[in-house]
Amino acid sequence: MTLQIIRTNQAPAPVGPYNQAIAAKGTMLFVAGQIPLNPETGEIVGGNDITQQTQQVMANLGAILKEAGTSWENVVKTSVFLSDLNNFVAMNQVYASYFDEATAPARACVEVARLPKDVLVEIDCIAILSD
Asked: What share of the chain is helix, strand, coil (3-state, %, to 5)?
């Protein structure tokens, strides 16, 4: 199996020793957790607004999926990390707009003590790559 590094300027550059995504050539794409950073400025989007932060996270994930040649329809698993589970309903409204409920990916959602740059949400995903 060949691994391919996926990078796009349409999502924030990694802020540590990791890549935006790794493709297991021809099969799976493993996308690193995305936080609500504007890829052009590197600034956090949305302040304390979970809706705006989730929209930016999903935009960042979408850009990486596109760069890898796949799409939301091929996402099979997501992990959502929230700094406060009281934000679940608002996050879920944005998140749900990206998936058909009948074919939505498996998902885990947990509250964590703290996220990078003190953001409210981080989401990662695994997707199938098209042949």
From this structure: 30, 30, 40
Q: Which of 109, 115, 126, 128 is catalytic?
A: 109
Secondary structure E strands in the chain: 3-6, 21-24, 28-34, 75-82, 106-111, 121-128
Where along the chain do its domains lie?
Answer: 3-128
Neighbours of 21 (CB within 10 A): 26
Q: Give catalytic status of residue 109 as yes or no.
A: yes
Assign domain 3-128 to a CATH class. Answer: alpha beta
| Residues 86-129 pLDDT 10s | 999 999 999 999 999 999 999 999 999 999 999 999 999 999 99
